[in-house]
Write a structure and sequence with these properties.
This protein is an alpha+beta fold and 262 residues long. The protein is built from seven helices and nine strands, in the order E-E-H-H-E-E-E-H-E-H-E-H-H-E-E-H. Strands 1, 2, 3, 4, 5, 6, 7, 8 and 9 form a nine-stranded antiparallel beta sheet that branches. Strand 8 and strand 9 form a beta hairpin. It is elongated.
């Protein structure tokens, strides 16, 4: 049969990324407590396309994933990227794997248990070298320091979200990334709270007010001290309870550049 995709294209215009988006696919991720966790990912996969070719072979992206099934996981992202380049005759390959990750969390006083879900992403690319970024979105609770300072009674508080992304020398646990963020918040979020737990988290947050600026700085200070982390991006967004807008702060640092300067 005629291979239309491999026929020549005369516009002399290479394409940076071509491929598939929003593919739902089962994957396995490492779980520090249970060993591994099965989840469903939404995957984007791309390669470059030289100007001489009319199109890429879309089916080969899924075939590449199927080759690694059922072990499509963080540990073999590098191998998947290289296989994509091989199967599609490409110079560069890119993959984005977004998935929910579940952790059983215990309420602070009643010890009631419930599952918290965290939205995670693995972003990988292969050009002259492999680059992998691990990203987690963590829900948090925050009390406004200004509101607490100026109010005779109470302070306004809100739910927020912190997004932490890292590059690293060796594997970093999702659980460790979550803990760094939750420690920087006024209080972390739980899926199950009894009355005694609600009292505890409310009072803990009130005694630990944080601006979005405080949270991103506290996370950044912790990451600066971790020699395993080579690059990080941390952003905090509070969904304000007394404003019709969010409060936002963001820090990105490449520690390799800092090391070179020093």
């Amino acid at each position: 049969m005629i291979d239309i995709q491999s026929q020549p294209d005369y516009r002399k215009m290479p394409i940076d990324k071509v491929g598939i988006k929003n593919l739902r696919y089962p994957i396995t991720v490492l779980d520090r407590k249970n060993g591994s966790q099965n989840t469903i990912a939404t995957i984007n996969m791309y390669v470059d396309l030289p100007h001489i070719y009319k199109g890429t072979h879309m089916s080969r992206f899924v075939e590449t994933l199927n080759f690694f099934r059922p072990q499509v996981s963080f540990q073999n992202i590098s191998t998947i990227l290289e296989e994509m380049k091989k199967q599609l005759n490409a110079e560069s390959a890119h993959i984005e794997v977004a998935f929910p990750y579940f952790i059983e969390k215990t309420a602070p006083i009643s010890n009631s248990k419930g599952f918290m879900d965290y939205n995670c992403r693995i972003i990988g690319s292969s050009n002259s070298k492999i680059d992998i970024v691990s990203e987690v979105k963590i829900p948090i609770s925050a009390v406004c320091p200004c509101s607490k300072e100026i109010s005779e009674v109470g302070a306004h508080n809100q739910r927020g979200e912190v997004v932490l992304a890292t590059r690293f020398k060796k594997f970093i646990w999702i659980e460790d990334m979550i803990k760094i963020v939750e420690d920087a918040a006024s209080c972390d979020v739980y899926s199950v709270l009894k009355r005694e737990d609600e009292k505890w988290v409310t009072e803990k947050a009130f005694m630990n007010p944080k601006f979005v600026e405080d949270m991103v700085r506290d996370v950044a200070v912790k990451l600066e001290k971790d020699d395993n982390i080579t690059w990080y991006s941390v952003s905090a967004e509070n969904f304000e309870s007394i404003h019709n807008h969010s409060a936002y702060a963001h820090i990105t640092r490449d520690k390799k550049i800092k090391c070179l300067k020093t």
